[in-house]
Design brief:
The complex is a heterodimer of chains A (269) and B (257). With 269 residues, chain A is mainly α. Chain A has twelve helices and no strands. The longest helix of chain A is centred in the C-terminal third of the chain and has 36 residues. In chain B, helix 3 packs parallel to helix 6. The relative contact order of chain B is 0.12. Classes of the chains: A mainly alpha (269), B mainly alpha (257).
Amino acid sequence: MTRRARGLSGGQWIAQYASPTLVIIALLALWEVAASVGWLRPILFPPPSRLARSLYELATDGYPEGVTLWVHFGITMQRILTGYAGALALAVPLGLVIGCVPLLDRLTVPVVAFSRSVATLSLLPLAIVWFGTGEGSKMFLIGYGCFWVMLSNVVAAVQQVDPLLIRAAHSMDTGRLGIFTRVLLPAALPRMFAGARVSLGVGFMVIVGAEMIGTIKGLGALIMEARTFYRNDITMVGMALLGVIGMLIAVMLQRIEAWLLPWQSRERR
Amino acid sequence: MSMSAGSTVARHGLGAIGAFAFLALWELAARWVWRDVQVLPAPTQAIAIAWNHLTPSELAGHVGISLMRVAVGFTMAAALGITLGVAGSWYAWIGRLCRPVIDLLRPIPPLAWIPIAIVWFGLGEGSKWFVIFLGAFFPIFSNAYRGMDSVSPILLRAARTMDVDGVALLVRVALPAALPDIATGLRVGFGLAFGILIAAELIAADSGMGYLVMQSRQIGELGVAVFGILLIGVVSLVSDLALAAGLRHLLGRSAQI
């Protein structure tokens, strides 16, 4: 990212864009040829030309019939964002409190560590009993995955604030509230943001698994449903779309971070 | 990082109190407030129910096969990820060939590979190994690559002036310098591998800890699910700590893992 901002010389430009593009094009061409000559079975490895047609089909007619790409995309995004927002809304205040009170932190360390290491999707049977097979259980699972990652990052962010900063603020007669809002919070923000990024990544992983069970809408459901009916081309298109969402999320977070924490990105340069 | 023995004891002691309080609260809430084992089983009820439904050898079988799957997938990921990461950074042309493909595939969440893995490798062990492999591969590769890339050029130049070059420079200077990053990648990859394994077992398997959790729905005993969830947490925590200890042993005490 930073290199791009500085401007590239000709050689760098080739290294960064031209050569990767060529490698990818060559690989796709090889795949296409291999499928048409018969080295790869097209049913198992649908060639790129087939995938392009499937993408068009998915965008216009939809799969299953009537449920287009945009519906799947929208529902998946909506689930991720609601679960994620809920998790952040709980984890940030709780993390700030735990981070500021050392006793509380020591009491909760094992519980937090254990809850983090519980595989989120293993909670599926509980989620179904508590929230039914609908949207509720999916949001619970995403929320659970995001929550613990975010919580431990917020706690760590507060603890890693340089004590010198706080002492300096004390010596300048800043009140407790002032120290919290004007010293502690800004100093903890970068690490909290890193946590928010990791946490969204977790949510993105969980959603795919959560959507594979009990729904036909959403990209996770799409790829599972298509496999059941031997539409491997649709499955692969769905995987590619999930990859695109993953990339979009990463770029979006970078932008938000640069906007919220301009000093941070300037430092890195 | 240094800490006196007394404060370490106090820390762990407080942690134990916290964990105990949490379990006690759960136990009380389940037994006195909810009072329905099919909605919220207490920890002790979950263990009792699991004890009635599972023989110890069945249980050991589920844990064993899950660990086996993680071990196979993770070992493949470690072997290929470290090899490609190191080679891709050391030899520019390898990097130019494999980086674009890896960068393109990386954003696809590992679980999204499950359906296609079933198509390619069937419902048996192969598809699970493949998905676990994919999940662990990317962080292992990126960390190995980054670790090699950030080896100080001064170190390499110093070695060259002492006539260490070629493969010897790679194996005896660059690789050891990149080891901490490689170790970080291994730990991140291992954590992911475990989560993915459970998901794969939930969706398509007839054995393993993930299957155990899912099976609770068929036999209508939520207690078995809760037991399975706790079991997965314990096993993944313990194996992660074991991996960390192993890596620390390998890297010496200086490494912060």
